[in-house]
Structures are given as C-alpha cells and as structure tokens.
Amino acid sequence: MSSKGNLIILSGPSGTGKGTVCKKLFAQNSNITYSVSATTRLPRPGEENGREYYFVSKDEFENMITQNQLLEWANVYGNYYGTPLNKINELRAQGIDVLLEIDTQGALNVMEKAADGIFIFLLPPSLAELEKRIRGRGTETAEVIKKRLDAAIDEIALGQHYNYLVVNNNIDTAVEQITAIILAEKCRTSRNIDIINKIKTEEI
Amino acid sequence: MSSKGNLIILSGPSGTGKGTVCKKLFAQNSNITYSVSATTRLPRPGEENGREYYFVSKDEFENMITQNQLLEWANVYGNYYGTPLNKINELRAQGIDVLLEIDTQGALNVMEKAADGIFIFLLPPSLAELEKRIRGRGTETAEVIKKRLDAAIDEIALGQHYNYLVVNNNIDTAVEQITAIILAEKCRTSRNIDIINKIKTEEI
Q1: At what angle do helices B18-28 and B171-186 cross, to 10 degrees?
Q2: What CATH fold (topology level) applies to the domain A7-200?
Q3: Closest approach of B39 to chain A, Cα-based (Å)
Q4: Which CATH homologous superfamily contains domain B7-35+96-200?
Q5: B188 contacts in A (CB within 8 Å)?
Q6: B109 and B74 Cβ atoms separated by less than 8 Å
Q7: Domain Guanylate kinase-like: where (chains A, B) (predicted)?
C-alpha cells in the first residue's frame, strides 16, 4: 500500500454538506488533514486565521498568484479563494492525506495541475432537498438562494469530470463511502508499481 | 451509488492466499457471492460439485467453449478451468456483486471481455514468504513447488495490468482493503452517470 499521502479533492455545489461531511471524516480518520485555504473575504464570527482560512489582503493574495504559490485560486462573488501549495507537499511527503474542500471552479483548476488527485463530487439527494438546505441556513437573501440554486444546477453537470460521485443523503453513509474511496485509492496499481518491482528483484 | 452488481476479479500467484481472503470476505459481506467455476480436474477430498467447482467432463467443457458460454477458460497443468457467463449476469442484474477467484491466465482473458470488471491482484509480502506458504501446504512435490515459484515470479509482473494491488501480509488488513475497493468502485463516476442526469432534469 502506497505510503505517500494522497491529495483528496472534495467538491460539489454550495449546500450539499461538504463541511459537515468533512468534520465527521476528520473525526473518524486521524491520518487525514485539511488543507487550509487562503482568502480575501472577511472572517465570519467564530472563524480563526489559520484554522478555517488564512485571511489575507488582496495585495498579499495577488502576490501569491504571481509567485506561483497556489495550487488553484478563484474569484468567487468578488473574493479570492486559493490553496497554498507548499504545505500540501510537506504533509503528503510525511504520508499524511490532505483533503481540499473547495468549490467546483477551484476543483477544475486542480484537475489540470494535480493528475494524481482523487476527485470526489458530493451531490445532494435532489434539487428540492438542496433548496431546503440552502434556505435552512437562514443567512442568505432570496436573491442569493436563487443564484446559488441556479449555479448548483450548472455545477452538477461538472460531476462527470470527477473520479467519484457520492450522494449526501445520509451523512454516515457518505462518510463511509469517502473513507472507503480513500483506502481503496491507496491500493491503486498506479500508486504501487514499486511493490511489484521490489518483489521481482528479491533474492531467494 | 450504482445498484448494479459489480464483477470483481481476485487473482494472483498460487499460494498468495486467495482462498483464505475470499472466505473471510464472504463471511463479512453478505452482498458478495462467488462465481463457481467449471473444471475438468478431479474433485479433491471434501469438494462438492456446484460448491467449489462444477466438475465436468472434457467433452462437456469443450462444448461450453464452442457455445460461447464461458467468460474465460484456460488449460492449467492439463486441466480445463472456466467461468460460466449466464449465472454471473443474472446475479449482477439483481444487484449482487460477483467475485471470480481465478488464476492470472484466466484474469488476463477476462480483462479482454469485461472492461467494467474490478481487477484486484493479491501479492505475497515477499517471495520468501510465498515459498514458505507453498511448502506449508505439504501437498506438493519439490518439483511442483519449484515450478509454482518460478511461475509466481513471472505472474507478479502481470500485476501492473490490474486496477488494484493488495499485499496479503495480514489477512484482516487485506480483507479490509478489498472491502473498501468494492465499496469505492460503487461510487465511481463511470458507474453513476445516471445520477447526474436524474438530478439535472428534476423539476423544482
């Protein structure tokens, strides 16, 4: 089984429950860690710099872009979001799996740069259920809800570019499936060719 | 998650513990079933027709070949072994996963015919350990042991053509990995494109 940490990309439309799924996944798997993103958006109440995000200025962010220090970045609703590269590579070299929880625009960018990434698309059980969840947050205006739902319909079509589709109907089932995907990918032949070479050259 | 049963092919050199791994896998997963092979070799003590194998005559077997009723077949050490196709398709349509435990020659044939199969190669932890296991059976002559070990070295190179490599160092770990592979494959995008289409066309 491959000892190098994997890069796992969990994405999907807004409101599918990526955050909740991730929390449970981390609680059950000590060998997976978050990649903390950088953003120029303002912290929400309770958010801490370096935990939810690295909160940076627009100038700082644009500097990271030009220095090629980001695995991906995107401008969403007027704010920058991006994934710092150096930390991810450090963790993977130590055998730790790194999970990016990012929007679909960001995930498409990562696909171009990280061919060995494991791309998991989280789907809502239905559009009706997705609408209910977005409304349930109670933090968005009717206009934003409509905008997000329209965006979700477009985004769902992007699922075809991912390696795996997980429907978040029941959170425990979704987490069980993602845990299985992570373990299975460690056994992928493409990540383990060295095992064959090692046994073949063994002296007996 | 795909509701069609998958075809899982577990293969590897003689002596890697395919049979033991399968027994434990079946004990823990009620939704997986064996594909019972047909063979022209004589039953060993305790083997039952229709359970370990369908024991058939050479004429009967050659008839199945010409009637195209086998997913794969091979002649190993002078005996025919093959996989009847009709039963597999029936089970998969019912949502049951079907596992073929076959030798590497048979698996290569299945690769050509079943592109949607999940090919898992079971490796011994080392050649030294494999030799110990083959000797440990106590049923083989020195000549047969040497022949099998030489064959195993050639066969291990075939592992590169499989989707997954599982090292059978610890049986529980190997079974856990295979269980994860089977669940993960049910979430593969290529097996679930209909989910995307269904959500996209939903009326809200």
Answers
A1: 60
A2: Rossmann fold (3.40.50)
A3: 30
A4: P-loop containing nucleotide triphosphate hydrolases (3.40.50.300)
A5: 163-165
A6: yes
A7: 5-183
